[in-house]
Amino acid sequence: MLVAGVDSSTQSCKVVVREAETGALVREGRATHPDGTEVDPAAWWGALSEAISAAGGLADVSAASVAGQQHGMVCLDEGGEVVRPALLWNDTRSAGAAAELIQELGGGQAWADAVGLVPVASFTITKLRWLASNEPANADRTAAVCLPHDWLTWKLAGAGSLDALRTDRSDASGTGYWSTPTGEYRPDLLRLAFGREPLVPEVLGPTGIAGHLPEGASLGPGAGDNAAAALGAGALPGDVLVSIGTSGTAFSVAETPAADPSGTVAGFADTTGRFLPLVATLNAARVLDAVAALLGVDHAELSRLALSAPPGAGGLSLVPYLEGERTPNRPNSTGALHGLTLATSTPAYLARAAVEGMLCALADGLDALVAQGAEVNRVILVGGGARSEAVRRIAPEVFGAPVVVPPPGEYVADGAARQAAWVALGGDAPPPWSGGLVEEYEAKGVPAIRERYAEAREHVIDRTA
Ligand SMILES: Nc1ncnc2c1ncn2[C@@H]1O[C@H](COP(=O)(O)OP(=O)(O)O)[C@@H](O)[C@H]1O
Ligand SMILES: O=C(CO)[C@@H](O)[C@H](O)COP(=O)(O)O
């Protein structure tokens, strides 16, 4: 029996077809997404169709699930047409709306208690407030609001009435109007943000059926991409997953919901009925892309250069806020390079500072998870940035914990496929797919890297416009 999993992520769409019982990979395909923090969902549909074709089609699968980038606001009118391009998780125009909403509900603690997170520009609820305030005609046309994975699942199921929209608790928990602690929508918060209650998708349980493909295969509930990665990588208690994709994320599977009034840790839900405390940064793999482009080298050479410079890069510290930042909440900030001397003005030192700076921002996230009660026995590194040898070898020095790297793969799409297998096979738990051999990286922690970074990150300036 075959199942399919989809990862509709920020930069691309990936499809895997696997054997339901064993998880063995049978076929895969991918296609790219356009750049930008505002994207017409039609581009995702085009990329999904291309990736499905590249993966040999879905005619022979028994079930499929879609995972996707979290938080993006997809507004639909009464007829199911998209009202405006989706605002993505990394679009910071709703930072002011986030500040308003925090103040209106009575502060961070009130939000953490109500839904498990404190609004920042990434979360859907702030985008709805921005729409109501800045594009009233588009707000008026909005009959339903859903997330990227909900919309793609609905399209795969034939784009019926708006009542057919479905989601899952992991992605619902990133909206700001669904409560992780209670497992219910908060229509009052939707009204607070948007002035009224647009239709929102029904939230399915872990193996709920969201619809069917034209050939009859069941569509699972799907998931937010980070929750799907946790399922795909088979994280155990004491593991923290760090994903280095467009976003950088650090998260673990927990038995109880997080409620961090500072907003650093977002108290998301996972795909299985548990919880997924998570810290996200806006700047991860693309920091390395940018520095490689700046130096005129490819990723392999960037990695070689970084590893040729000493730990700490001679005091050169790169603060990676190239897209503004969400953790810490500095949406208008810019990146910075501190500690430049004649000796450190070389490609090798810059490459090392880029890798270390990007990892230091994630190490701050690990600290925040620990403060919320997470154990960090080991870090599992996934995402495109984990393909860099420099990242893999420098990560334990920065994190001060052992790092394991599963074989290169598409862990979000795999998690979606494993959910689809659970839907197809039934039972109390997803099938126990065995992962491949992991590579282990251990190194003595180098606290000086983070100490220097902590000093540097206090000295950034905001963008001019
Ligand atoms: N060897 C490598 N070293 C560093 N970065 C890499 C490498 N290979 C791919 N990447 C980067 O990883 C990112 C894509 O990772 P991915 O996890 O698929 O992101 P997303 O899920 O956000 O679309 C791109 O920015 C890409 O340039
Ligand atoms: O905003 C978050 C998590 O809260 C991001 O992790 C998005 O879910 C996008 O993920 P990638 O495309 O970078 O994997």
From TrEMBL:
One Gene Ontology biological process: xylulose catabolic process
Site (Important for activity): residue numbering on this chain: D7
Carbohydrate kinase FGGY C-terminal domain sequence ranges: 241-422
Top-level lineage group: Bacteria
Classification via Pfam families: FGGY_C, FGGY_N
UniProt-listed Enzyme Commission number(s): 2.7.1.17
Active site per the UniProt annotation: D225
Domain Carbohydrate kinase FGGY N-terminal: 3-220
SUPFAM superfamilies membership: Actin-like ATPase domain (SSF53067)
Keywords for this protein: ATP-binding, Carbohydrate metabolism, Kinase, Nucleotide-binding, Transferase, Xylose metabolism
Function: Catalyzes the phosphorylation of D-xylulose to D-xylulose 5-phosphate.
Family the entry assigns: Belongs to the FGGY kinase family.
UniProt-recorded name of the protein: Xylulose kinase
Gene name of this polypeptide: xylB_2
